[in-house]
């Protein structure tokens, strides 16, 4: 995964949290994903296909998921329920959609969002994609972005 491929996702998550949720993110160090299980119990997952294939995961602590959903829905969310799950899916959709718009050369299609919950869950990335992990901190707590995106065939190299 190259820097020019991850930067649209970094800009997108920061912009989504700032404009849609009124919440600034502080980014941690970008690292290759090493641990199998995700750190936090709620993940919004989006698949990407086209001239590149990959997966985008927005992994949220429960506090971040509840506060983000409360902000989006303009009502207090006190537990992870269907409303919170829908909100997390929509956040993942906004992040992936905005990044897709910056990666036009890949003609990407974005899947419908899936939300996975539970302690120590794992999301599989395409076998040829080496995912990166970017931790963030916000006023509600920690979250992380994981992205694995790899080009398909030689057609992109000539684009």
What would you say this structure looks like, in words?
33% of the residues lie in helices and 28% in strands. The protein is of the alpha+beta class and 159 residues long. The protein has a single domain (3-151), classed as 3-Layer(aba) Sandwich (Chemotaxis protein chec). Strands 1, 2, 3, 4, 5, 6, 7 and 8 form an eight-stranded antiparallel beta sheet that branches. A hairpin with a 2-residue loop joins strand 7 (132-138) and strand 8. Helix 1 (3-21) packs across helix 3 and helix 2 (62-73) packs across helix 3 (82-102). The longest helix has 21 residues, at 82-102. Residues 154-159 have low confidence and may be disordered.
Examine the secondary-structure arrangement and name the CATH architecture. 3-Layer(aba) Sandwich
* Count of helical regions: 3
Q: Strand-and-helix sequence, N→C?
A: HEEEEHHEEEE
Strand content: 25-35%
Radius of gyration: 15 Å
Question: What is the averaged pLDDT score?
Answer: 92
Shape: globular
Query: Which CATH first-tier class would you pick?
Result: Alpha Beta
CATH topology: Chemotaxis protein chec
Give the beta-strand count. Answer: 8
| Straight-line distance between termini | 17 Å
The amount of helix comes to 25-40%
What's the CATH H-level homologous superfamily? CheC-like
> How would you classify the helix and strand content by structural class?
alpha+beta
């Amino acid at each position: 995964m190259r820097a020019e491929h991850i930067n649209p996702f970094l800009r997108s998550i920061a912009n989504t949290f700032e404009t849609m949720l009124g919440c600034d993110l502080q980014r941690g160090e970008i690292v290759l994903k090493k641990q199998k299980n995700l750190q936090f119990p709620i993940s919004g997952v989006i698949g990407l296909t086209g001239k590149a294939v990959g997966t985008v995961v927005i992994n949220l602590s429960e506090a971040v998921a509840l506060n983000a959903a409360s902000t989006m829905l303009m009502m207090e969310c006190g537990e992870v329920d269907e409303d919170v799950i829908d909100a997390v899916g929509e956040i993942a959709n906004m992040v992936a959609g905005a990044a897709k718009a910056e990666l036009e050369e890949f003609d990407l299609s974005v899947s419908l969002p899936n939300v996975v919950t539970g302690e120590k869950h794992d999301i599989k990335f395409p076998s040829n994609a080496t995912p990166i992990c970017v931790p963030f901190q916000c006023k509600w707590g920690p979250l992380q972005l994981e992205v694995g995106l790899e080009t398909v065939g030689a057609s992109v190299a000539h684009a």
